[in-house]
């Protein structure tokens, strides 16, 4: 498969940078925690509903295959 992403050492402990950024950025923004004054979760929000963004077709295809639950938030 030509579109398969090869392992990228610089993305460790993840397989590649798509996987790492999904775990560290895309997924957390789909369910961001708003904390109260005592450090408790007061609300969970989908930041994608509040921002303007554009994903390229290659990244969106990767997300649909590897993180389909996340793409429903866009």
Keywords:
single chain; 74 residues; alpha+beta; two-stranded antiparallel sheet; 3 helices; 2 strands; 12% strand; globular
Taking the sheet with the most strands, its summary is:
2 strands, antiparallel
**Rg, Cα atoms, Å:** 15 Å
Strand content: 5-15%
Helix/strand/pairing class, anyone?
A: alpha+beta
Oligomer: single chain
Helix content: 25-40%
Structure annotation, total helices: 3
Q: Note the gap between the termini.
A: 27 Å
Shape: globular
Mean pLDDT: 89
Strand sequence of the main sheet, in spatial order? 1-2
Question: Order of SSEs, N→C?
Answer: HEEHH
Q: Note poorly predicted spans.
A: none
The total strand number stands at 2
Describe this structure in words.
The chain has 74 residues and is α+β, with helices and mostly antiparallel strands. The protein is 38% helix and 12% strand. It is built from three helices and two strands, in the order αββαα. The protein has a two-stranded antiparallel sheet. Strand 1 and strand 2 form a beta hairpin. The two termini are 27 Å apart. The mean pLDDT is 89.
Write the layout of secondary structure elements.
Elements: H1 17-30, E1 32-35, E2 41-45, H2 57-66, H3 68-71
Antiparallel strand pairs: 1-2
Task: Briefly summarize what is shown.
By secondary structure, the protein is an alpha+beta fold. Helix content is 38%, strand content 12%. The protein is built from three helices and two strands, in the order αββαα.
């Amino acid at each position: 498969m030509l579109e398969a992403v090869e392992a990228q050492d610089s993305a460790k402990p993840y397989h590649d940078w798509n996987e790492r950024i999904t775990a560290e950025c895309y997924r957390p923004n789909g369910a961001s925690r708003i904390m109260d004054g005592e450090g408790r979760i007061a609300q969970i929000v989908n930041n994608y509903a509040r921002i303007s963004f554009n994903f390229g077709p290659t990244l969106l295809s990767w997300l649909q295959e590897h993180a389909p639950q996340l793409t429903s938030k866009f």
